[in-house]
């Protein structure tokens, strides 16, 4: 990245000193499998409610499979996360949108965030881009006022130092996995982005189960608290309430006058529970005592006998050949019947040259194995 020549711009710099995630956090992320993430790919919508109970906005989340192009020829399967929030606070229209690509290991590939506040004569928009390239995570933050870029910051981090990082895009998936498990890792310290896109630490804690009223139905929800520990500003806290399948039912940012809730119960996603493995007991089979099996045996026996009899009738030479062999066998009475039979039938073979039969009936048989 190059230095920007705008007012307030800063030169691109590589940030070396960043916090380190705990081993528990790194292990937790590495053990999340695709089969756990798959049920977390769905869309959901909430509404934003003011302190007076008035609906002032909406909040939508979508997570699905996508294909990310690493370069002109190589592509990678990943997760595409969309999140949009829009509403009005104290009469001021506000809008936030997030689009992010996350690997199957929940690592960030690319993320775009756009926050806009439209004052009457002074609209302000903040655009943030995070892209992974050449072993670094490059961040570009742009502030736009009245459609004019007035400030640009660019900086980057080494990816090797970002183990345990949960981006805002990956955060939606991690929360859903935790909610479906209904358990969180203990003493885990993750890495996150703060509001200025600087790397800081974050933690997740469970607040247990609570009751929530959804229209006329009261449901149990699992509550997770996320805290982002920024270096320069006070910690930011969110509380997320989840239904058993990972659907978000309530979202609150501590200190904010607005609350996001669902208006009606969604169709819950059934958890895939493997069927118990069937156990087949060993049963002794006495086919002669089983009428059905014995009947099948007799039918098969008659079928084979009829087939054999038909074959013999169609080949009368077979009876004459066997009669000659048995007559000669009883006359000679050789000790080695196998060799005698081989020499008797050898002239009938089309693969061996003809020879004089019975010239050495007592020699070792080539049809028997010898040690």
TrEMBL record:
* Region of interest called Disordered, as start-end residue ranges on this chain: 352-371
Per UniProt, which keywords does this protein have? Cell membrane, Cilium biogenesis/degradation, Cytoplasm, Cytoskeleton, Membrane, Nucleus
According to its UniProt entry, the protein's GO biological process terms are:
actin filament polymerization; cilium organization
| Single GO cellular component term | plasma membrane
> What are the Ciliogenesis-associated TTC17-interacting protein N-terminal domain coordinates in residue numbering?
24-257
Subcellular compartments:
Cell membrane; Cytoplasm, Cytoskeleton; Nucleus
SUPFAM superfamilies (alphabetical): Dimerization-anchoring domain of cAMP-dependent PK regulatory subunit
Biased-composition ranges for Polar residues? Answer: 352-363
A Pfam family recorded for this sequence: CATIP_N
Q: So which domain of life are we looking at?
A: Eukaryota
Q: What does this protein do?
A: Plays a role in primary ciliogenesis by modulating actin polymerization.
Q: What does the sequence similarity comment in the record state about its family?
A: Belongs to the CATIP family.
Name the record gives this protein: Ciliogenesis-associated TTC17-interacting protein
Source organism of the structure: Python bivittatus (Burmese python)
| Lineage start | Eukaryota, Metazoa, Chordata, Craniata, Vertebrata
